[in-house]
Amino acid sequence: MNKDLLPPALAERVEKQEKYSDRIRGCLFGGAVGDALGYPVEFHSIDSIHAKYGSSGITEYEIDPASKVALFSDDTQMSLFTANGLLYGKTRSLLKGVASQPSYYVYLAYLDWLETQRGMSGAGGITWLSDIDGLYSCRAPGATCLDALASGERGSTINRINHSKGCGGVMRVAPVGLVMRDEDDMTVATEGAEIAALTHSHSLGFMPAAFLAHVVKNAVMAGPEVTLGVLIENAKETIQVLFAQRKHLEVFINLIDKAVSLAGNGASDEENIAMIGAGWCGDEALAIALYCALRHEGDFTSAVISAVNHSGDSDSTGALAGNIVGAMVGYDAIEEKWKDNLELKDTILEMADDLCYGCLVDPESGYVDEKWRDKYVRELVG
Ligand SMILES: [Mg+2]
């Protein structure tokens, strides 16, 4: 970005945000890496993973023979659409002065994602992602997400539309912590939950999303000096206040505590992850990811490898571990081998940078980034 072309107030803003760029890229890209590593073994037992990849399990990307890159799944697709929806809402409110809740704009973006799964190329409404051909691919999308979005009903934490506690709610909300990083912790956690509850009505489907958004936000803002243990304790405090009335709160917090305690024992990752669960549900997926991130703190590669080698939902646990560790270590610390062969890597980085710098508008000088406006608020074009 050429800061010299910007009005001074905006150049200053860009300069201030630059320090977050590496961790925001690390979070979004890291999630995609874990997702792509785990996607080929999503429905495999640990025994069948060992039989195919050896005793260390899957430790490298499986490259798609047709496209010659590693493919990510619905977790990354939906994370990108979450980001696009949030930025659409933010831009709209800046330029038009009116705004609904962020979850409303994310819901509209998810309807665009739904169209990509139905194969209606170019049918999308509000997102620039609708123009990316590579996103028109079905990668074992979650039935709950598809059914909820196709139902025409918009779920929320108070408007139940199903009983799902699947991990499809939490696996896509990391961008909430990235976009809303200047907001207070309670607001970020609340919005994480609301965005998961668009499709997942059980509290074990949306409380983990609140937790993840909180951890991601504070990982990005605090920087490398803060430990994951501290981030987890702080998120627990917020979640216990926010969901004090929810009957599954204790189950959720107990599982997080279990993951933290297992990370400090001498057993293997495989044994410990099996003690937590399989990750098909939101609380288990988050707890497995936190366990792997804690056990391998600061070591991106080891964390994502441990997060995908088990008998459960490997791509989602890999995506979540990648989001968390990536936010903590930053993009530059991620090994090159994970960057070279990932599909749509430029799209992921473009979205990460948009999440970092936001819409550049300066009411004083009247400056508006027109390229951004045309990208994010299509109805304002022309
Ligand atoms: Mg998936």
The share of residues in helices is: 55-70%
CATH architecture: Orthogonal Bundle
Number of discrete helical segments: 18
CATH topology: ADP-ribosylglycohydrolase fold
Strand elements, count: 2
Structural class: mainly alpha
Bound molecules: magnesium ion
**CATH homologous superfamily designation:** ADP-ribosylation/Crystallin J1
Shape label: globular
- Radius of gyration from the alpha-carbon trace, in angstroms: 19 Å
**Unreliable residue stretches:** none
Report the order of strands and helices: HHHHHHHHHHHHHHHHHEEH
How confident overall, as mean pLDDT?
Answer: 94
Give the terminus-to-terminus CA distance.
25 Å
Sheet-strand content, in percent, reads under 5%
Q: Numbering strands along the chain, what is their spatial order in the largest sheet? A: 1-2
Describe this structure in words.
The chain has 382 residues and is mainly α. The protein has a single domain, classed as ADP-ribosylglycohydrolase fold. The protein is built from 18 helices and 2 strands. The chain has a two-stranded antiparallel sheet with strand order 1-2. Helix 4 (74-96) crosses helix 5 (102-118), helix 9 runs parallel beside helix 15 (314-329) and helix 14 runs antiparallel to helix 15 (314-329). The longest helix is centred in the N-terminal third of the chain and has 23 residues, at 74-96. It is globular. 53% of the residues are buried. The mean pLDDT is 94. Bound molecules: magnesium ion. Magnesium ion binds at residues 73-75, 140, 315-316.
